[in-house]
């Protein structure tokens, strides 16, 4: 038998210490090389809806804490003033107006993202990540004529997500069920689901004809099938047991998001957590009903804020906060009356969901697309406020840089240093989109070309940005876009037009 010398014992000891440390690190996940990435995405949350962005009448302590732990961007944009195009741009890094189908989709729309298109989750997967989406999808499912009673494909799992737990479109659109990895959750095969956006199913009540069945009244546009006493857009029959409970949606998505983290904390993961608040119908859990004093719209923001607090607590408890980059934003600006009577306008008081900006959801004015935009990474990002000009479009290329991938999105700028607070050199320009109309921001200037159509959408009471002439605003002096400088400054207007045409044509 050979004697083990002192040196060898030391070497073995050193090696085992190393092995234990390595094992511990991979178990805890906190020191893996690749950081986790989480995108927390709100639906219709306005620039002024968050405490750190100036809200004083509404408390959002968890969103504030997240923003104060990292970078609060004051010039952060969604690509668009509505949901589907913004989500398309976020995931693909491509301007949504390059795809003529990137409009607010019905629940029966086919998958909008091509299965061969690059997406954030695909890029992350190629870089060794496991990927998941929990929450609102609204990017279409299937390839036309979906049979909701079989595997629904293609969908999120075919454009890069290993795991998906989603609602198909919006809370106000059928089908009102959750879909997990392509299958409707809790579906009873003896009660199949049928969905149609043109015709009702015989004998089924509607919001239009059966007001006596409603517990929430519609104001405009929501008068088809009734689910849980709430009239929706589109007709649906069957699937009784599978229908979601509106008041439990926030808890359901939160639980799935937490579960995803717990299950995947030992591998690098990308999670797209897409909350449904404060989109209509606003249905806070009874724990939150009445808490804001502003009616359901305020209550669901308080609810979402709590969810974010719980979610953050989970990251912390699981020991992965130091290894997780969190990006928080919203898909478009705020709207009060989006088709239901829920007192959002009447009970607003002094709250200004749009902050100092003009317009709101659907608008080419700033409040349509400029949204809360926060990055946070404990120990890696120093707290600050950044005026750098960034867009959700830029996440694909920037996250690619983060994970060592050479993939770039077609309209996505690599701004990782900006997102991590090492640089303030953001975008030069961005084409803004609102319901298929486009405008240009370049530097501190915004140019809106002439558009037909009403100046104000009276139903939602929002200025859309339409005008018969060119509009030109200098945001540095006029953040609220009150002084049109198009006539006063024809050179600037021409310069803006040239860039606009170049980007739009390219
Ligand atoms: C509109 C709906 C609105 C909302 C929106 C989509 C009507 C009259 N209005 O068509 O309530 O659902 O679509 O919002 O039907 S988004 O945030 O998903 O883009
Ligand atoms: Ca939205």
How would you characterize the overall build of this protein?
With 506 residues, this protein is an alpha/beta fold. The chain folds into three domains: 36-188 and 238-430, 3-Layer(aba) Sandwich (Alkaline Phosphatase, subunit A), CATH 3.40.720.10; 194-237, no CATH class; 432-504, Arylsulfatase, C-terminal domain (2-Layer Sandwich), CATH 3.30.1120. The chain is 23% helix and 18% strand. It contains ten helices and 20 strands. The strands form five sheets. It has a ten-stranded mixed beta sheet, with helices on both faces. The chain has a four-stranded antiparallel beta sheet with strand order 15-16-17-20, covered by helices on one side. α2 crosses α6 and α5 packs parallel to α6. It is globular and about 65 Å long. Mean pLDDT is 95; it is low at 21-32. Calcium ion binds at residues 43-44, 83, 279, 331-332.
């Amino acid at each position: 038998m050979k004697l083990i010398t002192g040196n060898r014992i030391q070497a073995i000891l050193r090696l085992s210490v190393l092995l234990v440390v390595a094992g511990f690190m991979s178990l805890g996940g906190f020191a893996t090389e690749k950081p986790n990435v989480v995108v927390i995405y709100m639906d219709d949350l306005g620039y002024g809806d968050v405490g750190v962005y100036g809200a004083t009448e509404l408390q959002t302590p968890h969103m504030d804490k997240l923003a104060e732990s990292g970078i609060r961007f004051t010039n952060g944009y969604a690509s668009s003033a509505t949901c589907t195009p913004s989500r398309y741009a976020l995931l693909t890094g491509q301007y949504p107006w390059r795809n003529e189908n990137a409009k607010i989709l019905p629940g029966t729309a086919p998958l909008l993202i091509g299965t061969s298109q690059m997406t954030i989750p695909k890029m992350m997967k190629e870089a060794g990540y496991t990927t998941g989406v929990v929450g609102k999808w609204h990017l279409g499912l299937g390839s036309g004529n979906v049979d909701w009673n079989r595997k629904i494909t293609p969908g999120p799992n075919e454009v890069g997500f290993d795991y998906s737990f989603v609602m198909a479109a919006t809370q106000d659109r059928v089908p009102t069920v959750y879909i997990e990895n392509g299958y409707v959750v809790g579906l009873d095969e003896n009660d199949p689901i049928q969905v149609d956006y043109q015709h009702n199913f015989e004998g089924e009540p509607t919001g239009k004809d059966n007001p006596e069945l409603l517990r929430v009244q519609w104001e405009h546009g929501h008068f088809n099938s009734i689910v849980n006493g709430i009239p929706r857009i589109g007709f649906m029959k069957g699937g009784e047991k599978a229908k979601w409970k509106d008041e439990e949606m926030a808890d359901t998505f939160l639980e799935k998001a937490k579960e995803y983290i717990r299950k995947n904390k030992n591998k690098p993961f990308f999670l797209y957590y897409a909350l449904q608040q404060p989109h209509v119908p606003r249905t806070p859990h009874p724990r939150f009903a009445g808490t804001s004093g502003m009616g359901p719209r305020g209550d669901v923001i308080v609810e979402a804020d709590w969810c974010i607090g719980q979610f953050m607590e989970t990251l912390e408890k699981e020991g992965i906060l130091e290894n997780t980059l969190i990006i928080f934003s919203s898909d478009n600006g705020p709207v009060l009356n989006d088709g239901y009577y829920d007192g959002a306008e009447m009970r607003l008081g002094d709250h200004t969901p749009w902050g100092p900006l003009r317009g709101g959801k659907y608008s080419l004015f700033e409040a349509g697309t400029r949204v809360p935009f926060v990055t946070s990474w404990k120990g890696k990002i120093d707290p600050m406020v950044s005026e750098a000009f960034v867009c959700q479009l830029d996440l694909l290329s920037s996250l690619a840089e983060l994970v060592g991938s050479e993939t770039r999105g077609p309209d996505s700028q690599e701004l990782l240093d900006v997102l991590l607070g090492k640089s303030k050199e953001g975008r030069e320009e961005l084409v803004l989109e609102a319901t298929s109309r486009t405008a240009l921001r370049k530097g501190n200037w915004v140019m809106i070309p002439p558009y037909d159509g009403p100046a104000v959408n009276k139903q939602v009471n929002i200025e859309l940005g339409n005008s018969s002439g060119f509009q030109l605003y200098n945001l540095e002096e006029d953040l609220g876009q009150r002084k049109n400088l198009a006539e006063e400054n024809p050179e600037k207007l021409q310069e803006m037009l040239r860039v606009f045409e170049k980007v739009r044509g390219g």
